[in-house]
Structure formats: C-alpha cells, structure tokens
Amino acid sequence: MLAVLGGAPGHGYELSQRLKQRSGGELGVHEGSLYPALHRLERAGLVESDWSSGDGRRRRVYRLTPKGRRAASESREEWRVFSAVVDRVLGGAT
C-alpha cells in the first residue's frame, strides 16, 4: 500500500484500483482489509489522512508521511535483495 500511495494521495477505492491496475489485475484488496490496513499505517505514522469533498462526496484521502516514504524505500530495497537471493536459489541469476 505504501508503494501505491507513493505516486499520489488517494481515497480508499482509488488506492484499491491503483493496486489492481499496477499488478495487472493479479492483486486486489477487499474493503474489509483495505481500511484496517490504512488505519494501521496511519497509527504507525506512515500515512496521514484528511477529509475531502472535492466532487461533492466526502472521502478520506490518504498520503504518505516522510516516515512512510522512507519505509517504502526501505521495503523496496529489502524486496530487491530478497528476490535476488530467491532467484539465485532457484537457479536464475548467478
């Protein structure tokens, strides 16, 4: 979710659609999981939110905090290292 928020702030449904689009439809998140995850990220100080009513509908818009940007960057690096190791184990990269 941090990576999805890295591009731009967004409300819950919008974020779930970005995740689906960026994963080519392979990853999806149900509303029952999405909002609890966003709330956990907010409590951890990685995400902040405000109410918006730009199109006449009141929605909570989430954005990364500086701490969230650092965490997203660290997670990307951890994933890069992990996937390279798995690739070597499986006989991919040498």
Beta fraction of the residues? 5-15%
Give the overall average pLDDT: 92
Distance from N terminus to C terminus (CA atoms, Å) equals 31 Å
**Helix tally?**
4
Helix and strand run: HEHHEEH
The spatial strand order of the largest sheet comes to 1-3-2
Percent helix: 55-70%
Shape, principal axes of CA atoms: globular
What's the count of strands? 3
Largest beta-sheet details: 3 strands, antiparallel
What are the salient characteristics of this protein?
94 residues, alpha+beta, 3-stranded antiparallel β-sheet, 15% strand
In brief:
The protein has 94 residues and is of the alpha+beta class. It has helices at 2-7, 12-22, 31-43, 66-89, and strands at residues 10-11, 47-52, 59-64.
Task: Explain what the structure shows.
This protein is α+β, with helices and mostly antiparallel strands and 94 residues long. Helices cover 57% and strands 15% of the residues. The chain has four helices and three strands; from the N terminus they run H-E-H-H-E-E-H. It starts with a helix and ends in a 5-residue tail after the last helix. The mean pLDDT is 92.
Write the layout of secondary structure elements.
Elements: H1 2-7, E1 10-11, H2 12-22, H3 31-43, E2 47-52, E3 59-64, H4 66-89
Antiparallel strand pairs: 1-3, 2-3
